[in-house]
Design goal:
single chain; about 160 residues; alpha+beta; Alpha-D-Glucose-1,6-Bisphosphate, Chain A, domain 4; seven-stranded antiparallel sheet
């Protein structure tokens, strides 16, 4: 079945257990400034990048060495007209053992080409997943966004109803 949702896949020599551990370490591959817990079922966290992007997510599925799923509870993009983009979408990581390698398949369920943010998000996810996450899994060092000097902006998060 052909899907238009964003998906990217890569193989590593590490075990599924090592891959899952890295995936749940969002601060190691996506952003050092993530607020909240990201690794236990029902954990909620907030990702933010300056005043451009804030989102609140919840870990809704965790299958040992096989799957991690976060649900986007709320989202704000400064650069889109439709402020509901991403809300209700899911970040899905499926991990499969293939011979002596591990396949990581990332799908942003609900992120479709019709979204205003699609091209920017596709480019960003490709970089975070194919470069930063892969490096975290294979070398122990990802390339996340650095923690912002001004830190988490609670006032903006409150305004956007993310807290």
């Amino acid at each position: 079945m052909k899907t238009s949702e964003f998906t990217t896949t890569f193989l590593v020599d590490q075990t599924p257990e090592e891959a899952i551990k890295a995936i749940k370490n969002i601060r190691g591959w996506w952003s050092e400034g993530v607020e909240g817990s990201t690794d236990k079922l029902n954990d909620e966290f907030i990702y933010h990048y300056k005043d451009v992007h804030y989102c609140k997510m919840q870990l809704i599925e965790l299958v040992a060495d096989q799957r991690v799923v976060w649900l986007v509870l709320d989202n704000y993009f400064k650069f889109t007209k439709d402020k509901s983009e991403w809300i209700g979408t899911k970040l899905v990581f499926d991990i499969l053992r293939k011979d002596d390698q591990t396949e990581i398949r990332f799908t942003h369920e609900g992120l479709v080409p019709q979204y205003e943010c699609y091209e920017i998000c596709r480019e960003a996810w490709t970089n975070y997943i194919q470069n930063s996450l892969r490096n975290l899994i294979t070398t122990g060092k990802g390339e996340p966004n650095p923690k912002e000097e001004d830190g988490f902006n609670a006032e903006l998060a409150q305004k956007w109803k993310l807290v």
